[in-house]
Write a structure and sequence with these properties.
With 481 residues, the chain is mainly beta. It has 4 domains: 4-123, Sandwich (Immunoglobulin-like), CATH 2.60.40; 130-222, Sandwich (Immunoglobulin-like); 227-318, Immunoglobulin-like (Sandwich); 322-421, Immunoglobulins (Immunoglobulin-like, Sandwich), CATH 2.60.40. Helices cover 9% and strands 44% of the residues. It has 1 helix and 40 strands. The termini are far apart. 29% of the residues are buried.
Length: 481
């Protein structure tokens, strides 16, 4: 429509200018413009009901609603009993209903000026973009953050909205990226935990600015406080198989109302559940995206401030690299306490990192960079000297340092048996070769000698006991005689 519009009693003219109607010869004075609003919101999902209210002081005889670009009037309604407002309903919002609206009214004094514009937006026409926080959604009070809205679709513009009592929105032109993605950056701050900071974003095209995509997932800014940190655990252990289910558990002795889980490097909303006194974060089917370092926070429903973060928990996904390394032990799977033992993990595939895990041990995992002797990729895990605590079942994995949380299939299990104390005789007190002193055959011979001596002692004790018993019997017979 531009800056000209028409209504009964008026001829074409500039906005807000009442022109003499030749048919009536009546020139009314300027009348106050009505107010216009949309319920439940001017941003409406496709297919939803929206109501437009046009309101002024009592006395209006008729209200009209115009949509820019459509023949005027778009709709007209008469108030009940000379009421001061009318309702224009759109039962199912579509792309055709999106646009900019004005309303005006007729009174005995003539037609009013147009209301302020109402921009009615329909959402859900395109797939949702992704909203993330740079560098992290976890802030300190008074900090600043940059929100990034991006998509693989070629949107011309992105819109950021802040949820709350009054919707606030910002719009930025899209910036194409070398990765064939489109994004816009929104600086936000300083922010404080006095109320919730929850955002969503949308994408749209220049030729239809009131037709938006589905909303992104909500992103809530978190404020890390000084209250007691929770603990983050997993019953499955730090290594989970590709395709397996995984549950992370955030625990705290503090009576938090809700918990949040955050993955390092992931900039969008941490998952949150309202459970007390513990929260379970379930991942039904583990994929490569679940590998990484996690922390959790505890908080209260009436506050945006969260606890100090838990200690980090690394989740490693096994089976993403489909090869299986081999695990061996030198000098052998049976060792005496004090010996030097080395576990050797080897792979025929190009690998630069190896991990060793022990069944039932949590965490710990040993990680070494690969060596490449004779085109073999391997790592040597030394246990010197070995103790009874080293006994157990071991497996090893291979990986790449560029994707440290994604592992190969596990090696076949290897059981290490550690027996009692080793011979502590020094080489200077022994004429045998020092290297052979720790050989399992030497220990077998020494044990055989010890067992022979013990058997001889038992035999002597038996003879002495037999002799003593016979002496007692002979003494008793002599006394009776």
């Amino acid at each position: 429509m531009g800056n000209t519009w028409e209504g009964p009693g008026l001829t074409a003219g500039t906005e807000g200018e009442n022109v003499l109607n030749p048919a009536t010869g009546f020139l009314p004075g300027p009348l106050p413009k009505p107010t216009i609003r949309a319920e439940p919101d001017p941003v409406i999902p496709s297919g939803s009901l929206v109501t437009i209210w046009c309101q002024e002081t009592p006395g209006a005889e008729e209200y009209r609603l115009n949509k820019e670009g459509s023949p005027a009037p778009w709709k007209r309604e008469k108030p009940l009993k000379s009421g001061d407002k009318v309702m224009f309903s759109i039962p199912e919002m579509t792309e055709l209903d999106a646009g900019i609206y004005h309303c005006y009214y007729l009174s005995p004094a003539g037609w009013s000026e147009r209301s302020d514009p109402l921009e009615l937006v329909v959402t859900g026409s395109y797939s949702k973009p992704r909203l993330s926080a740079l560098p992290s959604p976890v802030l300190t009070s008074g900090g600043n953050v940059t929100l990034q809205c991006g998509s693989g679709q070629g949107f011309d513009r992105f819109i950021l909205t802040k949820e709350g009592d009054h919707r606030i929105s910002w719009a930025q032109d899209s910036q194409p990226q070398p990765s064939r993605k489109y994004q816009a950056l929104f600086p936000v701050g300083p922010v404080t935990p006095s109320h919730r900071w929850t955002f969503r974003c949308y994408g749209c095209y220049r030729n239809s600015p009131q037709v938006w995509s589905h909303p992104s997932d909500a992103l809530e800014l978190l404020f890390s406080g000084e209250s007691g940190k929770p603990s983050l655990l997993t019953q499955q252990g730090p290594i989970v198989a590709f395709g397996q289910s995984l549950t992370l558990q955030c625990r705290s002795d503090v009576g938090y109302d809700r918990f949040a889980l955050h993955k390092e490097g992931r900039r969008d909303l941490p998952q949150s559940l309202v459970l007390q006194p513990q929260a379970h974060f379930s991942m039904d089917t583990v994929s490569s995206s679940h590998g990484g370092r996690y922390r959790c926070y505890g908080g209260y429903n009436l506050s945006s401030e969260w606890s100090a973060p838990s200690d980090p928990l690394d989740i490693l996904v096994a089976g993403w690299l489909s090869d299986r390394p081999s695990l061996s032990v030198q000098p052998g799977p049976r060792a005496a306490s004090g010996e030097n033992v080395t576990l050797l993990c080897q792979s025929r595939s190009l690998r630069d990192t190896f991990l060793l895990s022990k069944e039932g041990a949590y965490p710990p995992l040993l990680r070494l960079r690969s060596k490449h002797p004779a085109q073999q990729f391997q790592a040597e895990f030394s246990m010197s000297p070995v103790t009874s605590a080293h006994g157990g079942t071991y497996r090893c994995y291979s990986s790449h340092s560029s994707i440290p949380y994604l592992l190969s299939l596990p090696s076949e299990p290897l059981q290490l048996l550690v027996s009692g104390a080793a011979d502590t005789t020094s080489p200077s007190q022994n004429n045998s070769d020092p290297k052979s002193a720790s050989h399992p055959q030497d220990y077998t011979m020494e044990n055989s000698i010890r067992m022979g001596v013990a058997g001889l002692v038992l035999l002597v004790l038996g003879v002495l006991l037999f002799w003593s018993r016979n002496s007692q019997i002979k003494t008793q017979e002599a006394a009776r005689t």
